[in-house]
Amino acid sequence: MKRRDILRWGTSAALGWSATSALTACRRFSPSSSIPLSIEETRGLESPSVIGTDAYHFLKDVGQGFSGTTVRLITEDSPGANVAWEFVQEEFIPLTGIDVQWDRFPLDRVFGRIEQDIAREAGTYDIMYWDQARIGRFLEVGVNPKELLENSDLQYPNYNFEDFLSPLVANIASYQGQLAAIPYDIPILILFYRPDILEELGLSIPMTMEDYLETMQVITEAKAPQIYGTVEQWKVGHYSLHANMTAWLWAHGGSIYHADGTPAINDDRAIAAMEYLLAQRQYAPPKP
Questions:
Q1: Which of 34, 140, 184, 252 has the fewest C-beta atoms lying within 10 Å of its C-beta?
Q2: 62, 153 in Cβ contact below 8 A?
Q3: Rounded Cα distance, 172 and 131, in Å
Q4: What torsion, rounded to 10 degrees, do the Cα atoms 56, 57, 62, 65 define?
Q5: At what angle do helices 239-251 and 268-279 cross, to 10 degrees?
């Protein structure tokens, strides 16, 4: 879905799903239900599965020129990647004749394999999953995406790079102003909530950091251990901990660096953010 469609549809649906159900898959949801639809139900009028669409002709006509070749990918094993793999098998491979080998692993194993592949200059993978912390390190390894974006012969129908938010392109997919990758699987934290629980406990949707902390406290005290007020991604040594931390850092007006490049991670705002993060510990499910 395009960003504008997500925002329009999300507003109409009020984004009031159960967080657990909403995060189990990246497929489109019915506005009246938190149950993910089947892959057939997610196909739109522009789908390459529909004979005669621009996407269908692109994959069949342009893609057939590469029939018999193999594309190798490595990404994190995530719901989004798994759904994309279903579409690749059902649409991309049959229409193009291109074989796709897609390795999906836990994030730490992905980075380990990429590091080994680059160090040995093995060239095992054509497409790799990088995070923003490694963009600068791998800048000279990959193909500059601008070269691909400017090739009109290979431009997917209705693909518009401008649909990506410009701050994401600048801060997630670029290094020192140079585009290095296509944004994918961006770690943006969004508030998902259970309207039924808020109504049951007489709570309003939290609008401030203070409200959010108070809300998770009330829910935890009333519902734990069956239901907790929040959930964390604090795995030691995993990049998810960094993604979680920076959300609260920025929410408190902090930053990792000052404008002059000096560290800001230990200033008053950053300390307040870390204290806020740690305060949530008692309101999240304990480590299994």
A1: 140
A2: yes
A3: 8
A4: 90
A5: 120
